[in-house]
Each structure stands twice: as C-alpha cells, then as structure tokens.
Design brief:
about 325 residues; alpha/beta; Spore Coat Polysaccharide Biosynthesis Protein SpsA, Chain A; 2 domains; 9-stranded mixed beta sheet; 13 helices; 9 strands; Glyco_trans_2-like; Nucleotide-diphossugar_trans; transferase
Length: about 325
C-alpha cells in the first residue's frame, strides 16, 4: 500500500477561509486526530482506527508542532488513507479547524491521540447517523483506562433532551473523542472556537442547534486517565471557558445577544461571593477526581481511592454523581 501522504499549512486559517476551501462531500467517514507529543500512546490510538470493521474512511492527522517522535512515527505508517498535516503549535482547536478544511467525507469522527476505539466504533456510529437523519452528532458511552487496567463502562444519556440538559448543567452529556458528526453541520456552526479550553463543550451546544444529539447504547471508547496535577490558575481559566460556553448557549436559546470572552469575564466578576466560592470548591473536586482516575487505573490504585474520597469532600454532589454512573454500569 502507498505511504501516507503529508500535507502542509503555511499560515493560520480562519474558519471562513476553511469553509471556502472545502469542496463537496463524498460518502464515508473522515477520522480526524490532533497530535501533540503523544508518544508512546499514539501507536495504539492510530492502530485502533486502522483496524476498524468499517473501512471506508480517510484518516486526517494534524501534528500540532510535536517535539517528540510523534511525527516520525506517523510518517512511518504505510497506509494511503492517512493524511498528515504538520503545523507549528497552535492548540487543539486550531488543529481541529485545519483538519476540518481537509475533510472530504459526509461524516467526521473524532479520535484523541492517547485513547482507543473499539473495532466496531465507526461502523456503529455511521449506522446511527444513516438511520437518524435529524441527528447532527452521535457518540457513545466510554470507559476510563490507564497503564494498568480499564474501568467499567460509564453510561451516558442517550436522547437529545437528556444530553442537552446535562450539558447546560455542566454535566457530561457527550465525549468528544468518541463522537461522530455530519461534516456539513460542523461547517455550518463554524468549526471550533479557538479559545484555549472547552472547544468541545461549545461545539456540542452549537451542534444541538442544527440537529439532535444522540449517544448509542454501547461503550465504544477508552478514555485515557492521566494522574498529572492541574494548577489552580489553569483550573480557573478552564472554568471560565466552560462557563462561557454554557452562558453563550443559553443566550442563543433565549434570543439574547451573545458577548465576547472579555465582556463575559468582566460581567462574571460581579457574581455573588457564594457562587465564586462554590466554583472554586468544584474546581478542586474536579482536579482530584481527574487525578484519582489516573491513579486508580495506573499504578497507584490505593492512592486513587483516597483521592476520590477527597474529591467527594470538596463537592459531594458532582463526585457522587460520577461515582453513581460508574456503579450503575456494574449492575446494568
């Protein structure tokens, strides 16, 4: 089989120019992956796509300025379905928009560079979109995994209303890496916003405005949990973008003019002190929960359980809700 192709981008592209460059779509799936220093996990992620039961796909991989062996590995893979697009480091969202410009198929599936897809994932999700023409984006349940083991499937809401309500509450309704969407809908909503965080949450909410959201009743994705810590400043910045995505969706739904991030940040400073304190506690709980998953499925399971208890003390409702979903998967 001919070697994978390498494309290049010489300068940043706005989504308007990406849309203008996009041609008509053909049947099949464009699988899109953004890569930044993803070795050694990248090998398993790529192979999980190449060995799918559904084979009518192109695999568009944007290397976002990796400094490890990621790009060298990608260039060594001998598969004509792979298109490699190297660029200087601009972030996941920008890489997603560059990749979108090169999609030629009617469906677009996401894949994260350190995760793993079930062999039937593309087939099941493409079948769901074929059978439900009113659905703009479909996903699945998932399970956490690490270097040592994998967890039980985490159930996700399946119907549009349940997914959308969860997203507006700030609860997980979809998993970005496990999703597949109609490429024309992705173009219609303008691709990814290019802020630093939560481009996926914003995308989910905007895709809900051009069609329905759906999760199939299968666990088709393994999400790698890392045990790295997050600084309080980074958590606060992530929270700002997360709240901004939800706020803008509510404004659009209610017919209220949207605002830019700077204006939202200025307005947000006037929120009640109790709400600000609650958000900080939630940030601490989230950081502990994320790290607990990495330790539990990595090499420190006891420490992970202790950290999970710590997360529940900082925000009992959110943490117990996450634990409850994992427990329900054990008895279903």
């Amino acid at each position: 089989m001919p070697a994978s192709g390498t494309l290049s981008t010489s300068e940043p592209q706005t989504f308007a120019r990406i849309s203008e460059a996009s041609g008509p779509l053909r049947p099949g799936v464009s699988v899109q992956m953004a890569v930044f220093n993803a070795m050694p996990y990248l090998v398993d992620a790529v192979e999980s796509i190449l060995y799918q039961s559904y084979q009518d796909f192109e695999f568009i991989i944007v290397d976002d300025g990796s400094t490890d062996d990621s790009l060298a590995y990608l260039r060594s893979v001998n598969d004509a379905r792979i298109k490699i697009i190297p660029q200087t480091n601009r972030g996941t969202a920008a890489a997603g928009n560059v990749g979108l410009a090169h999609c030629t198929r009617q469906y677009l599936a996401r894949m994260d560079a350190d995760d793993w897809s079930d062999p039937s994932r593309l087939e099941r999700l493409a079948d769901a979109l074929d059978a439900n023409p009113d659905v703009s984006m479909v996903g699945s349940s998932f399970a956490y995994f690490g270097d040592r083991t994998a967890g039980r499937p985490v159930p996700m809401p399946q119907d549009h209303d349940s997914i959308y309500r969860a997203l507006l509450r700030g609860d997980h309704g979809m998993v970005h890496g496990a999703s597949m969407m109609r490429t024309e809908c992705m173009r219609a909503v303008g691709g990814y916003w290019e802020h630093r965080f939560f481009e996926d949450w914003d995308l989910f909410l905007r895709m809900a405005e051009v069609g329905k959201l759906m999760n199939v009743p299968h666990s088709l994705y393994l999400y790698r949990a890392h045990d790295t810590s997050l600084s309080s400043r980074r958590l606060e910045e992530m929270r700002l973008h997360y709240d901004y995505a939800i706020d803008q969706a509510k404004r659009r739904r209610e017919g209220i003019p949207t605002c830019d991030l700077a204006e939202f940040q200025s307005q947000r400073k006037n929120r009640p002190m109790t709400k600000s304190i609650g958000e900080r506690l939630d940030n601490i709980a989230l950081a502990n929960y994320r790290r607990a998953m990495g330790e539990t499925y990595g090499h420190r399971p006891l420490r992970g359980r202790i950290r999970l208890l710590s997360a529940s003390l900082w925000n009992p409702r959110r943490t117990l809700n996450r634990i409850g979903r994992r427990f329900r998967s054990r008895i279903d």
